[in-house]
Design goal:
Distance between the termini: 20 Å
Protein name: Transposase
Shape: elongated
CATH class of the largest domain: Alpha Beta
Number of helices: 6
Low-confidence stretches: 1-14, 219-224
Helix content: 40-55%
CATH topology of the largest domain: Nucleotidyltransferase, domain 5
Structural class: alpha/beta
Radius of gyration: 19 Å
Strand content: 5-15%
Strand order of the largest sheet: 3-2-1-4-5
Length: 224
């Protein structure tokens, strides 16, 4: 059985579609999958996000919903899209407004936001009521996001190497290392601004799509 796919009940010949919700804070990304009971936590930084993407990609999810968090979601959103995953960025209040049983879902505690978004992803993935809510990127859009993600990763690796050098550098080279650190930090900021513009545009489109989406007559069980 492949990772992230479960089998259940009388439908033993049909794999359950996996939907994923990701709650976002400055430090941590909390992940909830519809087929699992656990909440997974990843650091909200380049290498933590790489691990998150690798894990979610193994599940081959039908839909990934990422919490809009004032820009703190942008790097993760681009990394997930670069991996050709179906991703949408959603405001939590819009998610709760859309879910019929939202009052039953807590907003506090470990993984609470991720659970709300997973619940919404289950609703939106109900193919009897809605077309596919988010498609993986393709063509020039995919190439742009992949280029940004690759560029940022390389810049971060170079920045870490310079900081390691700085820790034990002779005074004769410290100035040059500090200049390189400033340059690399500026380049990372440029990449982040490009990612931010992309994600903000997508977030507006997602809000409009959510306003148009129809609630299903039945709600698929989330497995929790």
């Amino acid at each position: 059985m492949s990772a992230g796919v479960t089998w259940s009940g009388d439908e033993a010949d049909v794999p359950e579609r996996v939907c994923v919700g990701i709650g976002v804070t400055r430090e941590v990304l909390e992940v909830c999958a519809s087929s699992l009971h656990a909440i997974f936590g990843y650091r909200n930084e380049t290498f933590g996000i790489e691990s998150l993407v690798d894990t979610i990609a193994e599940w081959s999810p039908a839909l990934v919903l990422l919490e809009a968090a004032g820009g703190r979601e942008c790097e993760a959103a681009c990394a997930l899209q670069a991996a050709r995953l179906p991703v949408a960025v959603v405001q939590l209040h819009q998610a709760r407004a859309f879910i019929a049983r939202a009052t039953e879902l807590p907003l506090e505690g470990k993984g609470a936001h991720a659970r709300v978004l997973t619940e919404l992803a289950n609703v939106l993935d109900d193919v009897s009521s809605n077309p596919r809510f988010a498609e993986p990127l393709a063509g020039p859009g995919l190439q742009q996001v992949q280029a940004l993600v690759q560029r940022r990763r390389l810049l971060v690796q170079a920045l870490m190497a310079e900081y390691q050098l700085l820790a034990h550098a002779h005074s004769s080279v410290r100035g040059g290392i500090e200049q390189t650190i400033a340059f690399l930090s500026n380049q990372i900021g440029t990449v982040d601004r490009h990612c931010g513009r992309l994600v903000r545009g997508q977030r507006v489109g997602t809000a409009r799509a959510l306003a148009r989406a129809k609630r299903p007559r039945r709600m698929r069980a989330s497995g929790r």
